[in-house]
């Protein structure tokens, strides 16, 4: 359980929004979004700010290095989900992604990339954002769930996952693409792969019932099992409660599976026991942020890079 894994990063980037609100421009193809008519906008924004703060502090207490950047603008309501616009990879590689919604394209920040170059060993940055001009999109590790051990990029077809961009990414970063269709209980395409799938070192969470092609479903399960992982099947209801939107991190005392309190409550005891054979579950209440249709996995951009120097502190707040 304490063995290091290339699947589980030791450091993450988080964005703390000062003006969080569910984004009306992304609601059309995100069936996980919802509204809170009972709270004023300021109360919702304040609650989201607090949820990010609490989660960052909790991760740091568990031994994860957390780089927190402030977002003080009201123009980027989804900025709390940085995993969609960049990813990092062993060997010093960084990718920047093309975003589907125009309101999300301005989430990309040079200060985050500069921090990575300063604190970690970055060899190159490959920027795919120019593909937006051709209406070609690939929203990072929301669109893809990456198996860093087996080198497979699992991706659900959607407005936010273009297969041309996916092939280009996989060629550059040495992944094999595995594309499939997935739908919710109403037959609507799942907007991001990471809401129905999580890959840890020794296990994978998968909402297999949402993959209508039975043959393709079996292929995906078989591919995950080939790597020695136990595939833990999640029901549609569990996926709707964000049980698939989790991430494995490396903490001070071993691997952690970080997820929301809502997701944790949706798991049954057998599933919890199966996960905790490999990693400790660490839930956080992010119920306000979940109004935007994403959960804990979306909030964390894992850093799969080597540090230049050991971190002096586990919680690092950036200016701005």
Automatic annotation (TrEMBL):
Pfam families the record matches: DDAH_eukar
Protein name listed in UniProt: Amidinotransferase
Originating organism: Rhizobium lusitanum
């Amino acid at each position: 359980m304490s063995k290091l894994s290339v699947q589980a990063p030791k450091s993450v980037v988080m964005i703390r929004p000062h003006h969080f609100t569910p984004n009306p421009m992304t609601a059309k193809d995100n069936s996980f979004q919802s509204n809170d008519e009972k709270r004023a906008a300021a109360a919702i924004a304040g609650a989201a700010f607090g949820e990010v703060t609490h989660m960052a502090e909790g991760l740091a207490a568990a031994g994860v290095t957390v780089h927190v950047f402030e977002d003080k603008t009201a123009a980027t309501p989804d900025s709390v989900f940085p995993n969609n616009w960049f990813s990092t990879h062993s060997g010093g590689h960084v990718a920047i992604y093309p975003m589907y919604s125009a309101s999300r394209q301005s989430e990309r920040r040079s200060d985050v990339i500069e921090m990575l170059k300063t604190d970690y060993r970055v060899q190159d940055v490959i920027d795919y954002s120019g593909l937006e001009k051709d209406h070609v999109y690939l929203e990072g590790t929301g669109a893809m769930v990456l198996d860093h051990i087996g080198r497979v990029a699992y991706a659900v077809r959607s407005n936010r996952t273009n297969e041309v961009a996916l092939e280009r990414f996989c060629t550059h970063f040495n992944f094999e693409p595995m594309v499939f269709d997935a739908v919710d209980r109403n037959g609507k395409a799942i907007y991001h792969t990471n809401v129905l799938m999580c890959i840890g070192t020794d296990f994978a969470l998968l909402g297999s019932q949402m993959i209508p092609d039975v043959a393709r479903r079996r292929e995906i399960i078989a591919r995950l099992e080939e790597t020695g992982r136990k595939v833990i099947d999640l029901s549609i209801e569990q996926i709707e409660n964000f049980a698939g939107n989790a991430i494995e991190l490396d903490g001070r005392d071993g691997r952690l599976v970080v997820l929301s309190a809502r997701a944790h409550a949706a798991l049954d005891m057998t599933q919890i026991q199966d996960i905790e054979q490999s990693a400790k579950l660490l839930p956080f209440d992010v119920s306000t942020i979940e109004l935007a249709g994403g959960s804990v996995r979306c909030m964390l951009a894992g850093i799969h890079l080597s540090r230049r120097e050991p971190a002096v502190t586990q919680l690092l707040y950036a200016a701005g």
